[in-house]
Structures are given as C-alpha cells and as structure tokens.
Amino acid sequence: MHGSLPGKAAEIRALLLSLIDTLPEGAALPPERELAARWNVARMTLRRAVDELVIEELLVRRHGSGTYTTRPKVARWLGMIGFSEDIRRRGMRPGSTMLEFRHQKAERAAARRLRIPVGDAIIGFTRLRLADNHPMVVERTTLPAAYVPGLQADDLNGSLYDLLTSRYGIDVVSGTSRLEPVMPDAKTAGWLDIPTTQPCLAVHGISFDSRDRVFEYTSAVYRGDRYAFTTELRTTTPSPRANAKGL
C-alpha cells in the first residue's frame, strides 16, 4: 500500500519507521504538530503517512489520547502451509509444547470427519505453538492411527507436515478451513497467556493427501491480538455458454 505514497510522504514514512524502531511497544508518538515542525512537513502529509502505518498495524490511534506504537500482527496465509514453515518465512523461530497426547477410539463425530469407521484407533494431541518463544496458537489435531504407526508425543516437537512426509510418505495436497471468532475458555486462555476477554480466531479444517484420504482434522485457536489472516481471492471466468444465456 505504501508504494503509492508520493515522494514527501514516503520520506516521512521512513522517518516515522525510524522513530518507531527507537520506541518500545505501547509508547506514545510525539504530537503531530511537533513532528510536522521537526520534519518541516505539512500536517496533512504527516497524517497520511501515519494513516498508512495505522492500517499496517504498526501504530494505533486512541481517541482523545494520541498515537501509539503497537506490535504488528502475524499475517497468516490461509493455504496448505504448516505453522512452522509459515513462522520461519516471517523470520521468526517456531516452537511447540505438547499439552495433551492420547490414543483412543474414534467416536461418531471424529470418524465422520476423518472418513474412517467408528471405533477405529485415532491419535489426538494438543500443542501450544510458539513464535520466538511467544505463545501464538493452541492447536488440537486428530489423526487416524493406522496412517501414522508408532507416532509418539516426542516426535511432535517440530513440523507435523515435515514428519508426515519424511516418515510416512504423506503429502498434503488440499484441504478446507472454516474460520470463526471465539472467546477462549479458561484453559485455552491460560495456555496462550491472555485473559478470557481477549477475542480469538478459531480455525477448523481437514487435510487431504495425494491418495485423497483425510489424514488430519485440526481445530486451532489463534490469539486475536497477534494474528491476522490473509487469503487470495480470484474471480472465475464465466463459460461462453453461461454468457450466451446472459448469466
């Protein structure tokens, strides 16, 4: 978005970014009139540059109070990419803490999601996913045990997808996800180190492998103060037949 800024506004943006780098998170920026005088720029030009950084969530305006620095959210792409790879792409160090790990038999709901018979063995585990040691996501995963023989809790300290590919020959090829806003329960909030009043984003999804098997069902709760989701939207080209019918 900032690529459209004219020369002077781009220069002020650079000065603002340099100023932000010197301030701790949550620090107040000097008043606009002071910055405009310091940098010899019109208030309107300064305000436009500030607006851009507010949109990018590097700054936040508080009505009647001022403008403050803030921690940018991680922009998670909705696609077939695991948490570990996504975090590494953003220059952070992924990590995991195993919270729960259990073998059990599939009840009707789990069997339906995984497309396996009721009573088949499944493995369910819950992990706290970290970025630079900061809690980001509580992720609950269920796998058909027959697809991952010998899988143990100690195997799951890193990327699940890397493990599935290297050990079990399972390649992720497609999946579906559903997002919804949620408020965390007390246990989830404790794991994420947030209050129960902090809105979160829940993502529920299934993943398919190259044999068209559902090999995974996930239900993850992302911190709403640290995550934003991004997806790519494309228009579909109407068929000539549809155009001929005026559809």
Automatic annotation (TrEMBL):
Keyword Ligase: no
Annotated HTH gntR-type domain residues: 5-72
Keyword DNA-binding: yes
Pfam families, A to Z: GntR, UTRA
PROSITE patterns: HTH_GNTR (PS50949)
Annotated keywords: DNA-binding, Transcription, Transcription regulation
Superkingdom of origin: Bacteria
SMART domains linked to this entry: HTH_GNTR (SM00345), UTRA (SM00866)
Protein name: GntR family transcriptional regulator
Species per Swiss-Prot/TrEMBL record: Kribbella hippodromi
Lineage, broadest ranks: Bacteria, Bacillati, Actinomycetota, Actinomycetes, Propionibacteriales
